[in-house]
């Protein structure tokens, strides 16, 4: 009976306690600009601010991976996240933006 309890405890640990390593909420490219505050977004998209680029740090906003679905406007954008799909990285760089990996 003791071995059954031990294996159940191990199974509980492996199934429930180690799942946080798979935490990876995603966001698509077409939603990135919705994370920029409205007044700043309008300034950047209208072309009034050409000397600076908005910086999106996605970890504090609850996202860790950027996927490549959608389009980005041709406005530079600095995106910081833990993971990027290859398509997302390519599209951000084509729009003149920068991809920064963070730990």
Largest sheet: 3 strands, parallel
Q: Beta-strand level of the residues, as a percent range?
A: 15-25%
List the uncertain runs: none
What class do helices, strands and sheet pairing give? alpha/beta
The tally of helices reads: 3
Query: In one word, what is the shape?
Result: elongated
Number of beta strands: 6
Q: Helix-strand pattern, N to C?
A: HEHEEEEHE
Helix share bin: 25-40%
Biggest sheet strand line-up: 1-3-5
Q: What value does the Rg take, in angstroms?
A: 20 Å
How far apart are the first and last residues' alpha carbons, in Å?
Answer: 44 Å
What's the average pLDDT? 87
Care to describe what's here?
This protein is α/β, with parallel strands linked by helices. Helix content is 33%, strand content 18%. The protein starts with a helix and ends with a strand. The chain has a three-stranded parallel beta sheet with strand order 1-3-5. The chain has a three-stranded parallel beta sheet with strand order 2-4-6. It contains three helices and six strands; from the N terminus they run αβαββββαβ. The model has no long low-confidence stretch (mean pLDDT 87).
Question: Topology of this structure?
Answer:
Layout: H1 2-17, E1 26-28, H2 38-46, E2 55-57, E3 65-67, E4 78-81, E5 83-84, H3 86-94, E6 98-101
